[in-house]
Amino acid sequence: MKTLKDVISLKFKTSESEGVIFHGEGQQGDYITLELKKAKLVLNLNLGSNQLGSIFGHTSVTTGSLLDDHHWHSIIIERHGRNINLTLDRHMQHFRTNGEFDYLDLDYEITFGGMPFSGKPSSNSRKNFKGCMESINYNGNNITDLARRKKLEPSNVGNLSFSCVEPHTVPVFFNATSYLEVPGRPSQDLFSVSLLFRTWNPNGLLLFSHFSDDLGNVEIDINEGKVSVHINVSQVKKNRIDISS
């Protein structure tokens, strides 16, 4: 396909911070890749570069954050030549691609939810998308409906289920005055804890526990946007360990 205009739209939700949403490339060096990186949306686009290196078409735009919250997010990409409108959840960003070419020349398949292994280093390091998509529309074609009715030719529809499975995690909301207290295990000599958290606040206490027999305590907190672990041990010379990340 050699197109001057493109309109691509879809909705997605995921709890993963990395994953290729869709990808297409051509033999002339053209490509378009939409992916999640560190829970942000990244659009990589190249309408063509020349071998001499005087025309460099690669363009990369990042938008959004915290998109791995398992809520639905909508994307619309509208391209007319080098002019691009990228809309994420009704927030539109306008930009122009680098280079001198106006047409997107894709010789191979367009893949949704991942990219085929091409032998290039870029395809090796990218994760496939894990989550749900709906209302996938590519230049007027309802991809979701065509895939469900097996009307895409040629196509490789592998391990798709046309339903969205909800995660089994149960979140807990704290309002800065609430807390959750659970019983300790005094006979254990191992302390282990894991959790996922999300907050807009730069400071706050995540966890505190006394060790039994007055041996000290452990504290995990957020301080100026960094997570810190403080371990106080009362019966040794070096009685405090501080770890910050």
Automatic annotation (TrEMBL):
Pfam families cross-referenced by the UniProt entry: Laminin_G_2 (PF02210)
Every Laminin G domain range: 1-164
Protein name: CNTP2 protein
Source organism: Quiscalus mexicanus
Originating gene: Cntnap2_1
